[in-house]
Amino acid sequence: MRITEFSIRRHAAIVFLCLCFFLAGAYSYLAMPRESFPDVEFPFILVTTTLDGATPTDVEDSVTIPLETKLDGVEGLKEMRSVSSDGMSMISMEFVPGIEIDLALNRVRDAVAQAKSDISPDAEEPVVKEFAVTSIPVLIYHLVAGPTVSRSELFELAEKLEDDLKEIPGVLDVDIFGGRKREIAIEVDPERLHFFNLSLAQVQAILRGTNRNVSAGTADSATNRILMRVPGEFRNPAEIVGLVVGFTARGTPVYVSDVAMARYDFDEERSRARLYDFTGAPDRYVEPTKAVSLHIKKRMGENILAFCEDVAEVLHGWSIPSDVKIVKGLDQSREVRMMIGDLENGMGTAVILVLLVVLVGMGARNALLVATAIPLSMLITFIVLHMAGHTLNMMTLFSLILASGMLVDNAVVIIECIHRHHAMGLSRARAALAGTKEVARPVITSTATTVAAFLPLLWWPGIMGDFMSYLPMTVIICISSSLFVALVINPTLCAMFMKLKPGAEAAIDRETRRPTYWLVRKYQPALEFMLDRPGWTLATAAALLVFLAVLQGTAGTGVEFFPPLDPDNVVCSIKPPEGISVEASDRLSLAMEARMFGAPGSGYDRPVDNLKYASVVVGLEEGKGGALFQQNTGPVTAQVEFVESEDRARSSMLTLAEMRQRVEGLAPDGRRVAPPLFGAEFDVVKQQDGPPTGAPVSIDIFGEDLNQMRAVIDAMKRIMEGTPGAAKPTDDAVTAQPTLEWTVDRARAGIVGLEQATVASLLQVAVGGLKSGTIGHGDDEKDIMLRLPERYRLDTDLLAHVMIPVASGGSVPVASVASAKLVPGPVAIKHLNKQRILNASAEVQPGIRNDADVRAEFQRRVAEYRFPPGITHRFGGAAKDQEEASDFLRKAFVAALLLIFLTMMIEFNSFLVSGIVMCSVVLSVMGVLAGLLLLRMPFGIIMTGIGVISLAGIVVNNAIVLLDAVQRFEDRGETVRQAVVSATMVRFRPVLLTAVTTILGLLPMALKLNIDFAELSVQYNTTSSQWWQSMAVAVIFGLIAATVLTLGVVPALYLIYARAREAVRRGLELTGRTPREELDA
Prior knowledge:
Elements: H1 2-9, H2 11-31, E1 44-50, H3 56-71, E2 77-85, E3 88-95, H4 101-115, E4 127-131, E5 139-145, H5 151-165, E6 171-177, E7 182-188, H6 190-195, H7 200-210, E8 214-220, E9 225-230, H8 237-241, E10 244-247, E11 253-255, H9 256-259, E12 260-266, E13 272-277, E14 289-298, H10 304-316, E15 324-331, H11 332-362, H12 364-371, H13 373-387, H14 394-423, H15 428-454, H16 462-468, H17 470-497, H18 504-512, H19 515-532, H20 534-555, E16 559-560, E17 569-575, H21 582-596, E18 611-618, E19 636-642, H22 652-663, E20 681-686, E21 697-703, H23 706-722, E22 726-731, E23 738-744, H24 746-751, H25 756-767, E24 770-775, E25 782-787, H26 790-794, H27 796-800, E26 803-805, E27 811-813, E28 818-824, E29 829-832, E30 835-844, H28 851-863, E31 872-875, H29 878-908, H30 911-935, E32 939-940, H31 943-971, H32 976-1006, E33 1009-1012, E34 1017-1020, H33 1023-1046, H34 1049-1068, H35 1075-1080
Parallel strand pairs: 7-25, 16-32
Antiparallel strand pairs: 1-3, 1-4, 2-3, 2-29, 5-14, 5-15, 6-14, 7-12, 8-9, 10-11, 13-14, 13-18, 17-19, 17-20, 18-19, 21-30, 21-31, 22-30, 23-28, 24-25, 26-27, 29-30, 33-34
Helix pairs in contact: 1-17, 2-13, 2-17, 3-4, 11-12, 11-14, 11-32, 12-14, 12-17, 13-14, 13-17, 14-15, 14-17, 14-32, 15-17, 15-29, 15-31, 19-32, 20-30, 20-34, 29-30, 29-31, 30-31, 30-33, 30-34, 31-32, 31-33, 32-33, 32-34
């Protein structure tokens, strides 16, 4: 190898290069942003169009459908959803991952421009913007007040704190929940207005016309220029009530105070927040404290650990009143820090175990030489990842754990060969060159096969692919780095530091006393036995594989999409009927909270286990909450945070199950202790683990008749309720809310000179209020709201008799030109890819790992249902995601096998020999099945599937090294039987060591153990181990089976192949020389 010889001759430069790798790698590792999961971008674009006064059906016909027709042809579009609601059309477009979002925005704007001529001329200009999926806050802080602090004062403190937090560079947005803004309320008495023959429009015009500063221009004097201005902005309510709004018939001025009252007030209550703190009393009910919650979101790509530290620093330096305290609720950095700590400790444990194995197998000095491969390869990987702008997250860290055992494979093979040459009398430098040259080709080939196995995973489509692509990318970089280290750095270090005591024969004798050589001696009789019966050996292996496959299909525990994790927090949510007030939603929430937290009289005498904090937010602030198509004004969200995993009394999944039971009024043993909660849809869901996926059980209904579709959706929910294992059926149909509809008689209004807009303006002022300016600036700015007294807002008869001035100079009551009636409110009409759609979904009961069985039973029952004509359906959610993932992994596995086989063909130039090597992949599947059956684990479509693909690249390495040695011994003149035995004995130790190092590197993860080196403690069942256990088990058991059987079945197969080859050559009277051999001769 020329590169090896060059590096040995330039050993000083190589040492300096190693130093550079250490420094740059350490810097890259420390500088990489930390995240729990990869920061995947979601390519969504929103098109929003307003059509005031239009019903959902009108919006659908005149806005949504024309826009969808044009947008459907936009290049790169993956999926298009829309909601047509009262006066609003919202279209959400999901594009294929990797698309340049600016290019997609331009294409969408062009399509919207083409559709303008087809949409209603009364519609406003469609707004096209990128939708950033950053709705989940990273931090939630609560401002908790004492008895002397009002909620409005608390809200004002929160607004000031919001401004300071937004100064932090990484903060994307801060949402405030639970407070009410102060405002100036101008409460107009309609009877007084009628008495003075004035209108609301006159009052509003006076307020807007006088509440402003006017520039009066400039005047030049002999010495300078003088600016002139007329200040007119209001400073307090007293200035407002002193305004003249009109005159009586006698010319007496009418002031605002004559027709209205002006006072400080609060805006309409949109949300409430409170906090439960169980840290001091986990076993008894605690009274909630009033709070204002700040939901802090970070920008994509920001280091979450540094971000949270910056926020904490701002809060620490912020002065607050003595009876107000800041309580941290949700903190995603804690989970990230714990997860990264778990994986870093797992990586350290893996490295130590690998070194111990190498130490036992190769001696202290050789172990140290091998050990350099691990840190150097990882540091080079960190350099590459940091230069590519990637974060340090769960995926990259586990990839390094998976690779840690493989990193030493190349180093073990090369250093073992160098050591053997040195022991036979060659100098260090010559032994390094000769040993590397001997095994360089199989080492390169084995690395290429590993890369080939992971390479197809880089083309995983969709958001799932963006999420999972970090694993193959990191492993490929790491393994490629280990090849560079093995061919360049390890031989150089061996040439400098490898040392044997005098006497090569004595050194070899010492080596034969190592434990690995004891295994060699014990293994040889077994090998001879299998070579004597090669057909029997092959048949036994095949029968065992078939038996395990059948057993997995009949007695296995099924399949799962993603492994279920014990949640660190759950969300208790309430979806009330449409149009419900915050007050009514709060009553529903308090009933739920009483049961969850063991309030007196609730039927439960204590809270559920594992509670730390619970923050409740009732209602949504406008533009907040992250709900893309949120229609409800009073939803409830209770974020329940559990104590740390090591402090939990039991699994938090059991706590989740009990919380759901309490909603139904059941005790943990199934006894009824309270009636079920009713009046809304109640649900308790755990946090989203990994990439976003749909509900475990889900069905989409397509059709044209909305009433018919709703009837089918109700039927689907009933089927879900009867399906064993399904829980909490729900749907996305927006129910009708009662609406007070005022119909203006255009003829009567026209006779008296009234416009519809005038009546609508009066109603708007009466019910919601009308903003008529502001007072103050910055943090002290308050809205001036013009409205009628509350009794008019609540009494339709009073509102109907309010007098409206007309053009003739008199007034008429509202009832003379308009009538009110209660009608079913508008509903939202949803589309998926231009088709009307409704969805029903359900969760899987806690404790059920195999949601595929629940899904299959639901689909079987749906197959028995007779759908009405015009109604179609498809199974969505996790079923759709699972089908897509399974389809891709099957293709990726086939592509990996083909790439590996091509690599084998390049190496061995033989179909049959390459096929023998590929048999080790089949043997590894045998081990995977055995491991899943032994541990009673389901086959994970994602994790186990990736584990099997990973094995395809790992296990062939040993077969490559083994068969390469067999052919070398054949070239030296040995018979096939002698060559097989000699090669197996020589390669036994490196084959065994490389397998054991990979197995031990993953063993702690498979056992769900984590050794905390900082605290010197052992933790069990950490979050990261729950996530990766199934993949670790698949690789470990697959590698055990492949290693054991490779050392028996592969030699037997090669012996059968060699005998058949000779028989064919003799039968066909061939020369026995291949074209390659003839060219080499």
